[in-house]
C-alpha cells in the first residue's frame, strides 16, 4: 500500500470517501492498524488510561508520549502518523508548542501533532503550521479539560454552545489545521460543521455526518472495560485473552503443557551417552 500523506487524505476528503483513523500505543498495536489499511494512526493520549492505567489523560508526560510514539512509528509503514501533544506541553505559548511539537516529530517520529482546544489555540496552530508542523485540531469534548468541563459530557447541546463550536471550527480551519476531531458532539451539529468546513472532520461520538471516524483501539476490541455509548465493540478480546491464559494455567498445573512437540530433542547417540 502506498504511503498515506496529507495529499492522500485530501484526495479521500475531496471524493467523499470516509477517512479511517485508529489509535495505537505500541509496536504491535501500530503494526496491526497499519496492516488493516487504516488511513491515519493516532498515538492518542488516551494511552495514558488504556495502556498506562492513569485515571485521566492529563497525567501523561511528553517523555512518556515520545516513548510510545517511537514504538508505534516502528510498526507504521503506510498509515499517516499523528500524535497527541500532552496536557501542559503546548498551552503556555506558541514557542512552547513549537519546541514540543518538534520533539514529537523528531524524537517521536510522528508526521503531525494533535492538540485540544478552540479559537484560543488558533494563534499557536497558525505558528505550528507556518513552521511546517501539520496540526490535527480537536474540539467538542476535550478530555484534557475534563475537570473544567465537569466530566466526560456531550458538548454543544444548546444553540449557543453549538454556535461557539462552529466559531472554534472555523478558527481552527483558518489557523491551518489539516483536519479537526469532533468528540461527543450531537449529530446535527457535527454534520453542520462538516458541511461548512473545507477540511475534513474526524468524528468520535459525532455521528455519520463527519468526513471520517476515529475510535480508541482498546475500546473497540473490548480490552478496556466500560466503553462510552459512541463506541462499537467489534470484539471482546479481553474475554478471549483471559480464556487463553486460564487454559495455559490449567495445562501447566495438570502437566498437559509443554507436550512433546514443544520440546527440543537431543540427537539419539548423544542422548544415550548423556544417560550413562
Ligand atoms: O487520545 C485519543 O485517543 C484521542 C481520540 C479519541 C480522538 O484523542
Ligand atoms: Na487524546
From TrEMBL:
> What domain of life does the UniProt record list for this protein's source?
Eukaryota
- Which reaction does this enzyme catalyse, per its entry? (6R)-5,10-methylene-5,6,7,8-tetrahydrofolate + 3-methyl-2-oxobutanoate + H2O = 2-dehydropantoate + (6S)-5,6,7,8-tetrahydrofolate
> What does the entry list under GO cellular component?
mitochondrion
Q: What is its EC number?
A: 2.1.2.11
Keyword DNA damage on entry: no
**Per UniProt, which keywords does this protein have?**
Methyltransferase, Pantothenate biosynthesis, Transferase
Q: Which GO terms describe its biological process?
A: methylation; pantothenate biosynthetic process
Metabolic or biological pathway:
Cofactor biosynthesis; (R)-pantothenate biosynthesis; (R)-pantoate from 3-methyl-2-oxobutanoate: step 1/2
GO MF annotation list: 3-methyl-2-oxobutanoate hydroxymethyltransferase activity; magnesium ion binding; methyltransferase activity
Q: Which family does it belong to?
A: Belongs to the PanB family.
User: What is the stated purpose of this protein?
Assistant: Catalyzes the reversible reaction in which hydroxymethyl group from 5,10-methylenetetrahydrofolate is transferred onto alpha-ketoisovalerate to form ketopantoate.
Could you identify this protein by its name?
A: 3-methyl-2-oxobutanoate hydroxymethyltransferase
Its source organism is: Lobosporangium transversale
The taxonomy runs: Eukaryota, Fungi, Fungi incertae sedis, Mucoromycota, Mortierellomycotina
